Amino acid sequence: TTKQKGSGLGLAVAYSIVRRHDGLIEAQSQLGNGTVIHIYLPASDNKAAPERHTASSGKRRGGVRVLVMDDEMFIRDIAVTILARMGYEADTAACGEEAVEKFSQAEEEGRPYLLAVLDLTIAGGMGGKETNRELKKISPGVKSIVSSGYYDDPVMAHPGEHGFDASMRKPYRIEEMEEVVNCVMSDCSPPAIPP
Fold first, then answer.
1. Angle at CA 100, nearest 5°, toward 88 and 7?
2. Which residue in 186, 189, 182, 187 sits closest to 88, CA to CA?
3. What is the C-alpha end-to-end distance of the chain, expressed in Å?
4. SS3 for 80?
């Protein structure tokens, strides 16, 4: 990463995605001049799959508010887009401290968040575990989902043992987010994270 306080996970996730699609990723970097990334993916003769319309798509969720905490703006934007498509009202926070402040304010205003999607690790800030503990002090009944690109972390493998209702891997996939969020909100057993 070229960010002063970055974790570098973005490039690792990009590499993983490209490799899973039998592609190649190259990086060329010059100090002071920037970086150029080339991504090569194999062509396909397959026709594009028709757009999926799930039963949950666009259905109003009765004003259910969701708070998404992640230190990457593009991840927050993706989550908000998917949640809005599902009919949830989503808001974001860049770190645990901001999440706790927004959560507390929403409680005081009588417009509470019923679900929090929390990034496990925040560079230079309060991560998902600590944030979840603080949110549960404010509202013990709040549902929470931990998210991370580190799939082998014990918190991701056993979210219930760490105070979460489920775990969800990044990068987010529409179908997976729909399944996990809807399951958590309807109190069913969330799916396990595939290897």
1. 90
2. 182
3. 26
4. helix
